[in-house]
Amino acid sequence: MVADIHLIPATESDQLAPPHPINQAFLAFLTGPAKAADQLIIMGDLFEVWLGDDISMAFYQREIDAIAQLSRQGTDIYIGLGNRDFLIGNDLLKACQAKGLFDDIIALEHKQQPAILLMHGDSLCTNDKAYQRMRFWLQQTWIKGLLRRLPKIWRLKLAQQLREKSTTANQHKTWDIMDVSDEALKQLWQKFPDSPYLIHGHTHRPGHHYYATKKQRWVLGDWQADGASYVTIDHGQPSLSRFNYPI
To answer: Locate the Calcineurin-like phosphoesterase domain: which residues (predicted)?
Structure first.
């Protein structure tokens, strides 16, 4: 499992130039550890920004082709929506040859083992009231449909405004506000009482957390030019690992 890669888009003028360092690290991961996996689950924010399949696919063609190649080699690909790329649609799914697209949460089952919960994680940051209000509206199906129909120039302008607003707002927020809340975790595990493990991203604070209730939580970090953390599952047991680039 990986999350928060935040791939940087290539412009029309630099399609033949070397990829951004973060993109290079992810491409190396796809031809490295990911090749040994039965499944690669990308849990949101694969892209730094996604304005809709009709616009954004052209700016990430190298990375899309690499994911599709991994799929052809036998690794099943699943893509989750994040707060940066919530407008991903079926065209990208087909281009990546991915098996499925999921929104907020999935319960991964392995034989007779209890299900492992996977999610991007932003819905758990309930102390950030302003963000949750914005997220509520952006997750509405009719809002997504409306955004996808806007002219390209309008979508570009709106994406820039949202990024600037988010950056400004986050400068005045503490980590406690932007991190996962205890109450959200409590409610999640009440909904899935038989699931002992949760894996998510979004907060960019990689770690492994234990709770008195015998629950465990793994958090994936965001990608940098020198690599990132990822989670593997072997016989139903998650483990946090590190991919270093260059190797």
So the answer is: 2-206
List, in order, residues 6 or more apart from 41 with CB less than 8 Å away: 1, 2, 78, 80, 108, 118
**Residues forming the annotated binding site?**
4, 6, 45, 83-84, 120, 128, 166, 170, 173, 202, 204
Whether 68 contacts 96, CB under 8 Å: yes
DSSP codes joined into one string, 52-107 = -HHHHGGGGHHHHHHHHHHHHTT-EEEEE--SS-TT--HHHHHHTT-SEEESSEEE
Q: What are phi and psi of 197, to 5 degrees?
A: -120, 140
Counted residue by residue, the chain has a size of 247
pLDDT in tens, 112-156: 778 999 999 999 999 999 889 989 998 899 999 999 999 989 988
Measured distance between the N- and C-terminal CA atoms of the chain, rounded to whole angstroms? 19
pLDDT tens digits for range 194-217: 999 999 999 999 999 999 889 999
pTM over 0.70: yes
Joined together, the tokens standing for residue 124 give 């758990």
Q: Assess contact for 221 and 232: CB atoms under 8 A.
A: no
- Residue ranges of the annotated binding site for Mn(2+) are 4, 6, 45, 83, 120, 202, 204
Binding-site positions for substrate = 83-84, 128, 166, 170, 173, 202
Which option is the CATH number for 12-244: 3.60.15.10, 3.40.50.720, 3.60.21.10, 3.90.930.12? 3.60.21.10
In 10 A of CB 31, how many CB atoms? Answer: 12
